[in-house]
Amino acid sequence: MRDVASAAGVSVGTVSKVLNNTGTIAKATRERVIEVARSMNFRPNSLAKSLHTGLSGSIGLISNDSFGRFTMPIMEGLEAVLAEHAIGVFMSNATDDPELEQRHIDQLLAKQVDGIVVTARRADRRPPVDLRGVGIPVVYVFSNAEDRDALTLLPDDEGGGKLAVDHLVAQGRKRIAHVTGPQDFVAVSLRASGYLAALEDAGLDAMPVMHGPWSEAWGREAASQLLDRGEVPDAVLCGNDQIGRGCVEAFRDAGHRVPEDIAIIGFDNWPVMTDACRPPLSSVDLQLTELGQEAGRRLLAMIGGERQTGTIRLPCRLELRGSTERAALP
C-alpha cells in the first residue's frame, strides 16, 4: 500500500480510504489511486482488513433452485448492490436435501461470512436455517421462513394477479378464465385471490379456477376443456408462462385468434417462453432482480447493526406483448 501511495503522490491513509470505499476523497484523487493500484496489480489484504473491521467482506447464498430460473436474477440484483461495497457472494446449491443444506451453511459459517441470503425455486414456507448459534443476519428472498422474527422478501403474487386482470378488464374483456398450477403452492392461492378480487371489483363473474401441472401440456389440455364445455373465454390469466404458451397454441389450433378473440397473460415473464410464443406472450414479471437488490440493501443494513423482521412483498410489473394487444374492441 505504501508503494501505491508513493506512486500516486498521496498518503497511505488516502489509499486505504479509496480501496475500502470509505471517507470523502476528491474524484480525481480517487481515480488516480485506483489507476495506480491497477497498474501495479495491487490487491488489498482481505485477511488484514477483516481483522481490522471484524467483517469478512463476503456473504453466502443458499438455494434449492438447481436450474437457476429464479435464483440467478435474484443473485444478479444482490451482487449489483454488494459489489458497490466490495462484498463477494458464495453461492451453494442445496437441492432439496436438508443435510446438504446444513453442510453448506456450516462451510459458510467456517468462512465467517457476514450474512446469508436464502432463496428457492418456490416461495413456500420452510424451516429457518440453523446457524449453530452464530449471530449473523439472514434474509429470505423468494423463500418464506417459519419464523416471525425473520426478514422475508417476496413478490406480491396477489397484486400481480389483480394487476393482470385489471388490464384485461380495461381492454373490455368480460369472460376471463384462470388456468394455473397445483393447489399446494402458496403463490397459486395468492394469484387466484388477485384474479377473484379484480373480477369482483369489476362486477364480473369468475369462472372456476383450473388447477394442473406447471406445463405447456396442461395449458393445452385446459384450453381444450374450456372449448369442449362451450365455456369460451375472451381472456385467460395463466399461472405461469408454460401454461400460457400451451393455451395460446390450443386456442390457435382450434381456430380462435390470439389476441383478437382471446387475450392471454402468463406469469413469471420468462423470456424462454414469452419470446418463443406466437404471438409473444404478455406476462406478469415477479421483479426478481429488484428483489435481489432490495435483499442486498437490507442485508447491508443488518450487517451494520439494524434489526429488520417481517414479510415484505414487492410489487409485480405487467410486461405487455402481442398476446393481449388488439386494434379495437368489438
UniProtKB/TrEMBL annotation:
<dbReference type="GO" id="GO:0000976">
    <property type="term" value="F:transcription cis-regulatory region binding"/>
</dbReference>
<dbReference type="InterPro" id="IPR010982">
    <property type="entry name" value="Lambda_DNA-bd_dom_sf"/>
</dbReference>
<dbReference type="GO" id="GO:0003700">
    <property type="term" value="F:DNA-binding transcription factor activity"/>
</dbReference>
<keyword id="KW-0804">Transcription</keyword>
<dbReference type="InterPro" id="IPR028082">
    <property type="entry name" value="Peripla_BP_I"/>
</dbReference>
<keyword id="KW-0238">DNA-binding</keyword>
<dbReference type="InterPro" id="IPR000843">
    <property type="entry name" value="HTH_LacI"/>
</dbReference>
<keyword id="KW-0805">Transcription regulation</keyword>
<feature type="domain" description="HTH lacI-type">
    <location>
        <begin position="1"/>
        <end position="53"/>
    </location>
</feature>
<dbReference type="Pfam" id="PF00356">
    <property type="entry name" value="LacI"/>
</dbReference>
<dbReference type="Pfam" id="PF13377">
    <property type="entry name" value="Peripla_BP_3"/>
</dbReference>
<dbReference type="InterPro" id="IPR046335">
    <property type="entry name" value="LacI/GalR-like_sensor"/>
</dbReference>
<protein>
    <submittedName>
        <fullName>LacI family transcriptional regulator</fullName>
    </submittedName>
</protein>
